[in-house]
Amino acid sequence: MRRASNPRAPSESAAAADGSFGRSAMRLVALFEALAKSEEGVSLAELSTTIGAPKSSLLGILRSMVALGYMEHGHGLYRLGPKSFRLAADILAIRRFPNLVRPILQDLAAKSGETVFLVVLDHLARRITYADIIDSANPVRYTVPTGTTRPLYVSAGGLMLLAYQEPTWVDGYITGTRLEPLTARTITDPAQLRERLATIRREGFSISLGETVPGAAGIAVPIFNADGGVTAGLLIGAPIERFEQELPELKRLLREATTRVSGIAQALVEEKGAPRD
Q: Which among 159, 226, 222 has a CA at the least distance from the CA of 194?
């Protein structure tokens, strides 16, 4: 009679898998760092010595990166590939975008007299982030610290970003998120939230009245990417009393501002796609 083998405990298997993945991730980062410092290329033996990892362990990672286009291999040397440089350009464009948009935010804040925000979508956290803020000069104003995050189902900015995502992503978000009230006006019914998102897409802007913070209101519009997607937008926030009186003018100012921002976004795309010498 054969005795059944004692399988490894799930926690032990998970720990081993995490350790293996962690080592591979660290080696991949080390490979990129080593190749980024060399124009001529680096041999497998040199990479093994520099990183302190066996050649056999690095070879599988290198072959995968070459197949994906992130690295190149020729004459016994490894170099960064075209996709690595494209990724670097994307990262730089993302970092430059807020700085390029800031003068438009400042102009919008001066003309509206209210606080202006550049809001972005954090896909992984499924939250809105207030990436840049120009405070109103008015002593009674609405503002939050730069870097603040909030759920997508509340606030004008969050609802706007949610409304313009792919339908399957929106479905997954609504079914997987507890719609807890932040104020008495917060939408907590999934069916009502879906209707609200459809209205935002139809009208092209999102308005929130006391749904996130009592007495505060906001209006947000999308910034469309080159592919038609939306991962950022402009938001104006103000006390409800002033907001309701200023709403027609705020809409007009936001339309002007998003036209200017879209021009910057398109210029970054064209610059990124332009051939390099």
A: 159
